[in-house]
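Please describe the entry underneath.
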Amino acid sequence: MAKKVYAVKKGKTTGIFLTWEECKKNVHGFPGAQYKSFPTLQEAESYLTGNEANLPLTEEEEAEGCTAYVDGSFDNVKQGYSYGCILLWQGKRIEMSKAFYGGEDVSMRNVAGELEGAMAAMTYCEEHEIPLLHLYYDYQGIESWATGEWKRNKPGTVRYKQYFDSLKKVRVVFHKVKGHSGVELNEAVDLLAKAALGIC
């Protein structure tokens, strides 16, 4: 079995460790520890510097990867936001949607919903141990808040970044699509999000 290296982004001591025992010493019992294992030193270094998305995909990731489309919606009358999400994995099409009402994120309108949709897709991959997620979105913040390119000024964007950084099993590759441009699955998740709020 190929030897792994371990990268600790948040722990008692951060950096790269060559054994699980050394890694464990620095994350065990540390609140909110962030760490991952990698097959190569380059990947571990990229994780620590935030350049992980630029690494070439491994054969395993390409073979086992999942594709997801997400979008959000908003209802001003009900003061609610929602997401629609479609995942394509191993020949299956999984549709998810959910509405949220009130709360501190409602001021972000449909963007709050799209963030929730992105996290729902990531959660599905984490729970099913899917190593790669191709995430298609139409609002730039879905990628830019996660990568740190955009500053997080609201609680919802802060939580989103924290959640993204906590991922341990899935690597996310972001893809921007133009909203309402006829992309079939992007239009489909838009309808799912609206249906969750009862506005279509």
